[in-house]
Fold this protein.
Amino acid sequence: MSVPHARLAAPLAAALTVTAVLAATAAADPILPSSPFGGLTYSVRVEKPGVADGFLYYTTGVSAAALVPGLGTVAQVLPGGRPANVIADRSGKEIKRYEPPAGQDVSNFRTQTYQGRKVLTWWQGSTVAGHGSGVGIIADENFNVLATVDPGGAGADVHEFRLTPDGHALLTSYPQVDADLTAIGGPANGKMFDTVALVIDVATGKQLFRWSAAEHVPLSESETNGKINGDVYDPYHMNSISLDPSGNLVVSLRNTAAVYDIDPNTGDVRWQLGGKHPTLTADPDVQFAFQHDAEFTDATTLRLFNNNSSGVESRGKSSVEWIHIDPAAKTATSIRNQQHPDGLVTPAMGNAESLPNGNTLVSWGMTPRISEFTPSGDLVYDASLPFGTYRVYLDGLPG
């Protein structure tokens, strides 16, 4: 794609300024976040035999989850910067593309099953202080909307829109509330984003369950005392909801660096992995922070994307971790920890997906890379994007 130099000069300068700010913010730390800019085009770095069949599903542009104020505005004038849902082949060639109306963002694009058929799903809405306010959308193979899931209130957040086999949707939402924030160095009459997990019946729109982090997790558990927007604090930052093998909710809170298993009937926390006061005793190799996308891959194995960095604080390289969970023994044991050969450190976003051939597909989130690893850790596919994508998935074409 040819772009005149004059058109790119100012936006690139602004983009480089954002990179410099990120680096300066973490300059006191020996481990710095990787660059959030990957070049002007989709570029395949590694492709070996053994990759899984299918097409890549991801979003372009800068996600509402990126936590960099103003970056989306800068990015939209750059190649790959406009928000869009993309289905692409392994070379990066776009097969299908959907762009939202002006002023709106999209994220978390994937295939799921709804009423027995394969559908396209994504979040769409506006960006608000490191999260989003919008709706979950279910569409056919041509992006024609079949159903919209709107929880009302603060709206559906960008971080999760997961359909369950019983016709429900798992959503995150970020209502703003008044709170005494002295426990995290804030004012007694402060404002914060509570972050909630919602279970919505798709057919009726009825809210079946609501779990508030503020009602169940003390503010003192937060790993951050920072503000996201103006005077509003973000002590929890829920970024994924999934189901454990028994149907309980598995919730990841980025800003407490912990994963919680929650009874969907009572709201009680059955167990906590990580954070300041875990209820599971983890072996020394189970170490993660500021994580995303916590979900079970089988009856006893929890997989998560370990960012290991908040952008301000970096504790190590980012990775995908597989952890054996034994709730009866109250233990957590490391099974595997997959880093990128380039030692990537991504301060926001990221996910992993188990593929039918046994490989694992990884979005490195704000670091604009997509990778595929074999069970033994061999990197069989690696590509760079202009900007990071919140999550990436692999599947056949819809329809």
